[in-house]
Amino acid sequence: MAVNDPLAKTASLSVIDYELLANKDAAEIKKLVQASETVGMFYLNLRGPRTQTIFEDVPIIFETGQEFFHLPPDSGEKTQSLREGMERGYHATKGFEYYEIARDEFQLGKWVLPATFEPQKERITRTLKIFNEAIQTVLTELCAAANVDIPELSDDPTVPSDTALKLVFKPPIHDAGKVIHPWHTDFGLATLLWYDEVTTQLPIYDEKGNQTDDWETVPVLEGSVLINVANELAAKSGGRFHSTVHRVVAPPGAKRVRNGIIYLLRPYKA
């Protein structure tokens, strides 16, 4: 199903207000828990005093990312940013490129940014901090509701993890509605997605709860990010919280460059 189909079904997700959640509003916590028990994906409204800078910082980070990703493949900045193993640093894969910043190393002052990104270090620092605090707030309330005690609640960057901020660059090669990433769930604890283009779809289930071949599109909600429960948190909750099945499609309109930013909350390493 193409996302530019005028008859495409639209998903209806809960909207959680981050300011209310951070202030321990009981009704907002209840909404969060219900959303995580059912769909497992929800909007987090970041229009508030704690997070307002994000709406200026992220577009500029995107512009800087464009400069970096348009460097030649053999440029020093890209080759020096290559990392083996986990998705750290710069990687070029079929159909897209990304640059992933390790939360722990960055917060401890051990991460060296490429020269192109260095002038925006303050903006990157603010963005990482806001996303981390937002997703940790969500994690704290969900664990409290499920009476689950996990070490990641300590939010300690000195304990190794694979938590990271990922910048994604996708060249203009996909037609609108093309499935870029088939259906899947996310590993880790939770995923935060800066969501300003219609690219996410959720499956439609039949009366017996079985996944069908039909999909509904998640619309953009201005001022909000998307957060979804991931596999590790679902398992830790004993299945109470739902790890969301979803897929990624090319947005409506003409082929064009797409930028993305994702915050991945992952467990501590054993």
Strand arrangement within the widest β-sheet reads 2-3-11-8-13-6-5-4
Strand element count: 13
User: Could you tell me the strand content as a percent range?
Assistant: 25-35%
Elements, N to C (H/E): EEHHEHHEEHHEEEEEEHEE
Structural class: alpha+beta
The backbone outline, from C-alpha atoms, is globular
Q: Spans of 5+ residues with little confidence (pLDDT < 50)?
A: none
- Main beta-sheet strand count, sense and barrel state: 8 strands, mixed
Q: Determine the mean pLDDT.
A: 93
**What's the alpha carbon Rg, rounded to whole Å?**
18 Å
Q: Whole-Å distance between the termini?
A: 41 Å
Helical stretch tally = 7
What percentage of residues falls in helices of 4 or more residues? 25-40%
Which SSEs are present, and which pair or pack?
Blueprint: E1 9-10, E2 15-17, H1 18-22, H2 26-37, E3 41-45, H3 54-69, H4 76-80, E4 89-93, E5 96-102, H5 103-107, H6 121-146, E6 164-170, E7 179-184, E8 190-194, E9 200-205, E10 211-217, E11 224-229, H7 231-236, E12 246-249, E13 258-265
Parallel strand pairs: 1-10, 2-3
Antiparallel strand pairs: 3-11, 4-5, 5-6, 6-13, 7-12, 8-11, 8-13, 9-10, 9-12
Notes on the structure:
The chain has seven helices and 13 strands. Strand 9 and strand 10 form a beta hairpin. It is globular. Helix 2 crosses helix 6 and helix 3 packs across helix 6. The strands form two sheets. Strands 2-3-11-8-13-6-5-4 form an eight-stranded mixed β-sheet. It is α+β, with helices and mostly antiparallel strands and 270 residues long. The longest helix has 26 residues. 28% of the residues lie in helices and 26% in strands.
